[in-house]
Amino acid sequence: xxxxxxxxxxxxxxxxxDDLSFEVDKGEIFxxxxxxxxxxxxxxxxxxxxxxxxxxxxxxxxxDIDYSVTDDIGFLTEERSLLTKLTVREQAIYFGALKxxxxxxxLERLDYLLDKFGISEYKDKKIKELSKGNQQKIQFITxxxxxxxxxILDEPFAGLDPFNIELFKSEIxxxxxKGSIIIFSSHRMEHVELFCKKLVILVNGKTVLSGNIKDIKxxxxxxxxxxxxxxxxxxxxxIKGVEKVIEKSDEYEVIISxxxxxxxxxxxxxxxxxxxxxxxxxxxxxxIFISKVGEAYEK
Length: 299
Prior knowledge:
Elements: E1 2-11, E2 14-24, E3 29-34, H1 40-47, E4 55-60, E5 63-64, E6 73-76, H2 88-98, H3 103-116, H4 132-144, E7 150-154, H5 162-177, E8 181-185, H6 189-195, E9 198-203, E10 206-212, H7 213-219, E11 223-230, H8 233-237, E12 242-247, E13 252-256, H9 262-269, E14 273-281, H10 285-298
Parallel strand pairs: 3-8, 3-9, 6-7, 7-8
Antiparallel strand pairs: 1-2, 1-4, 4-5, 9-10, 11-13, 11-14, 12-13
Helix pairs in contact: 2-3, 2-4
């Protein structure tokens, strides 16, 4: 288990992280989210022992994170961090050696991952000769070469097409099933929803929302209803609690103020003709993120 307990970080008088706490169990994928400058990168660096905490405690499986445990950690940075004049093989040997892996183990694991990601032919190509998408694959491969017990992924899908996102997704899920603790950060909320069960949202270093995503969505009262059929829009708009009706190509999205309004909308819709769709949608994580970040900035 990774435990972050009441961690703060100052740069001079500036507090970059403010009393942050969360836990990630073995095999869990956890979302650490926030706008640029929210404190995510500082948090990642403290978790890996690259930055000292100003206060608080961070442990991995009950131990402080130092050089005795860093071989069990993998990190994919948002910025490209490859040595572009090296070949893929040389890059892997370099990163693997930093994790105390033998050459035989490095090359065995490299061959397996290159084949899995469909780029075996690039093994002896220089990094700078690869496309941005294939460079991202190599960066990901070097991050998981050591089959880390703790894996930090900062914008892992940058520069990838939908097919390769699926490849990454499959490997991330496989690592979690094998017991890796995974911290996932992305500005694309739909990517976060692919994996994460729990999350923390940071604004200016402070936690503005944390918990289980399912519970967060349930507690976020606003709901959207998708309906399709012959509907009297003016009457629908006059129902108390209906905030807006958005007309789409062949259906309507009804924005309501709280879940208590669902029954009133349903009773009205049930009296309309040719109704072929009535779906109550929970708010997307993107909507929740924008709302909570906006509230934090307004305070």
